Amino acid sequence: MAQETSTLSISELSDLVVKIFENAGLSGQQASATADVIVAGERDGCKSHGIYRIEGCLRTIAAGKVEPKAKPELTDDGSAILRVDAKGAFSPAAFKLGAPALAERARQLGVASLVINSCTHFSALWPEIETLTDMGLAALAICPSYASVAPYGGKEPLLGTNPIAFGWPRPSKHPYVFDFATSIAARGEIELHRRAGTQIPEDWAVDVDGEPTTDPEKALAGAMMPFGAHKGSAISTMIELLSGVMIGDMTSPEALENLGNTTLSPHHGELIIAFSPEKFAAGRPGNPFVRAEVLFDAILGQGARLPSQRRFAMRDQTMRDGVQLTSDEMQSLQSFLA
Ligand code: NDP
Ligand code: PYC
């Protein structure tokens, strides 16, 4: 039987989530930046990174694995590599601090990167990408996670679910944005199946004995599969190298060893690269933004949709009508305040 639902406006939900995090001991800066990405997930219909994530964040705070009041610090030596030390806190406040400097440097040099070190990371990457596309820049973001995915041909957890997100600004339109796990599905999706008591597709994961499983519990205990066979496995490995090894931060196996289990949010780094399309295209024929629209029109012309189109439609709806939460979801939000 379907559960009763309650409707909350985005600002009501936002106030509630900020309050939950402040009650749990986060500073105002950390609570509001962290709540922003969770509420954005719920607003855009990305349930795997919406309010369901609060419980894991609170567990991580209670376990002392995240710094609740740390102030992120930006280091800028004038080069194309900017660095924010998150000092063990959640990643969103660190990104918020570094994003304006990243955008300014990308406009100046054509390309610039933001390294976030020592953060606890649980969030979707598209909110960060949209911050940069809103500033007229193209952007790429990647980060490791914790060992939970087998490399192609293997059966044991080693790589993370390692998300990769990209965005391209579109004047007067929503940006082109994709953002996905390099595992067949995000781990959050499997967790949502476990909670709902539903099975997962057979090709998503193997159990601890390396046998394919449709049981989400066994999948979470075993190893997830990379998307696109050897191709996803290689992209995921690249993410470990660039946003783990190269930036002097933890890889997914190291993050799991540091954390001890997969029920808390992992501690590692993140790499964000911003590009100025005008600078790259300078002196070449055609306006890059006009040429991009030709490509998008051709995609749409075949009846295909652009990534994030569903998300933006959901955003329009929830901004207008509010988000609907089940009575279980409402109860768990209330229980976090008790
Ligand atoms: P999905 O498979 O749900 O979506 C991937 C992307 O593909 C989205 O941009 C989506 O747009 C787009 N898309 C889906 N269907 C189509 C279609 N038919 N045509 C065109 N585009 C389409 O993502 P995942 O489950 O892999 O990842 C979900 C989230 O999990 C991501 O936001 C990611 O950042 C996050 N994550 C975070 C991790 C971390 O360590 N912090 C680890 C792993 C994942 P739309 O949304 O509009 O459907
Ligand atoms: O959904 O795979 C996931 C994930 C891992 C860390 C944050 N999200």
TrEMBL record:
GO terms for molecular function: oxidoreductase activity. SUPFAM superfamilies: L-sulfolactate dehydrogenase-like. InterPro entries: Mal/L-sulf/L-lact_DH-like_ah, Mal/L-sulf/L-lact_DH-like_NADP, Mal/L-sulfo/L-lacto_DH-like_sf, Malate/L-lactate_DH-like. Keywords: Oxidoreductase. Gene3D superfamilies: 1.10.1530.10, Hypothetical oxidoreductase yiak, domain 2 (3.30.1370.60). Pfam families: Ldh_2 (PF02615). It comes from the Bacteria. PANTHER family: MALATE DEHYDROGENASE, OXIDOREDUCTASE-RELATED. Belongs to the LDH2/MDH2 oxidoreductase family. This is Oxidoreductase. It comes from Ahrensia marina.
